[in-house]
Design goal:
Elements lengths: L16 E5 L7 H12 L4 E3 L6 H11 L3 E6 L4 H14 L7 E6 L3 H7 L3 E2 L3 H14 L9
Helix pairs in contact: 2-3
Bound molecules: cobalamin.
GO molecular function, one term: methionine synthase activity
Keywords: Cobalt, Metal-binding, Methyltransferase, Transferase
Protein name: Methionine synthase
Length: 145
């Protein structure tokens, strides 16, 4: 069974990217590498940790108004967690303002199943996508700025 994780989440405003390993998955090596590179590029990233429930991602997007959501998962069961997260974001009316990238052990079929905007392996390519997404999306839903 996957244990619940408790950790302090560091929020540097304005938040550009909310990033986490999805529910039931604890793989975090790729996530940590991606976050390091993204921060080097100048993005403010909130690291949600591992085994993150869909509701937690949505709460963080609502709280920060972050225009980009990055999900990682390496297990087959992670795809359902990614899909549930995307669905919840849509139900909250936030997908319109949020670009969703998935990474890890994913491909075209997984992206179609999950409903994300992109799937990426290459972190540099992800940074280019995030740059464009920052220009496109608004922070309309932010409770804080
Ligand atoms: C290391 C590892 C572990 C470590 C994880 C340590 C940690 N802190 O992360 C430990 C030993 C804990 C582990 C546990 C398990 N593992 Co494991 N693990 C791996 C292994 C060997 C390497 C994964 C890794 O870190 N790769 C290196 C990183 C750098 O690569 P990456 O994650 O792909 O990230 C890169 C890109 O994808 C990208 N990226 C990643 N995410 C994202 C997200 C975004 C948005 C972007 C832009 C980019 C991006 O950035 C990185 C740099 O390029 C893989 C095998 C493999 N070949 O992948 C198996 C693997 C993922 N594990 C597997 C399994 C089954 C498990 C266990 C269920 C085993 C068990 N029975 O307990 C548990 C799962 C526990 C859980 N609930 O999560 C299977 C999954 C099979 C499946 N399809 O479901 C794999 C594929 C092994 C296998 N061939 O069977 N595992």
């Amino acid at each position: 069974m996957v244990q619940a994780q408790t950790q302090t989440i560091n929020i540097k405003k304005p938040v550009d990217i909310v990033f986490g390993t999805v529910k039931r998955d604890i793989h975090d090596i790729g996530k940590s590498m991606a976050i390091s590179v993204m921060e080097t590029y100048g993005f403010n990233v909130v690291d949600m940790g591992v085994n993150v429930a869909p509701e937690k991602f949505i709460e963080m997007i609502q709280q920060t108004g972050a225009p980009i959501l990055c999900l990682t998962g390496l297990l087959t069961v992670s795809y359902d967690s990614m899909k549930a997260t995307v669905r919840l974001l849509e139900e909250a009316g936030l997908h319109e303002f949020t670009t969703i990238l998935i990474g890890g052990l994913v491909n075209d079929s997984v992206q179609n199943y999950v409903g994300s905007d992109y799937w990426v392996q290459d972190i540099q390519e992800a940074c280019e996508i995030c740059k464009a997404a920052l220009l496109k999306n608004t922070r309309k839903n932010a409770n804080i700025s």
